[in-house]
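Shift notes (night). Ran DUF913 domain-containing protein while the centrifuge was going.
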Amino acid sequence: MSAHHIDITSSSKPSELLIGMLSHSSAGLLKALFRSIQRLLTSAGTLESVHNLTETQLPQSIKLIIQNKAIFGYQIYSLAINMMSTLIHSEPTSLATLQEAGLPEALYDAIDSGIEPAFDVIAAIPSALGALCLNNARSNSTG
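Came back to this:
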């Protein structure tokens, strides 16, 4: 296993599980990484960084987390939803790239399958839907 690969199939010991199916250390690493990227996106003067991030594997990684919310757990799932909305709010033109990656559809499917009874998830969904709807309205009004 490479240094940048996280095994989402199982944990070595049931006692290491945090939430979902990730070990405590894997979940902690993902949460710290997402929070760092989130801070980068909300800092002033990061427009170029946002554009660069949407051209990486980040959209596919967010989609993977959203599609596998039971594996990643509600904390990382909510961070992924927040990351998607922050990308859109920070750079509205990134919506097209995220749509190509299938993120909105993945989120809609995840919501259709049921919303976790966790504050983090319940708080993240309206912001994401708002970002998707507002940007869709902007693109419709300019076209």
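The longest helix spans residues 119-142. Residues 38 and 83 are 6 Å apart (CA to CA).
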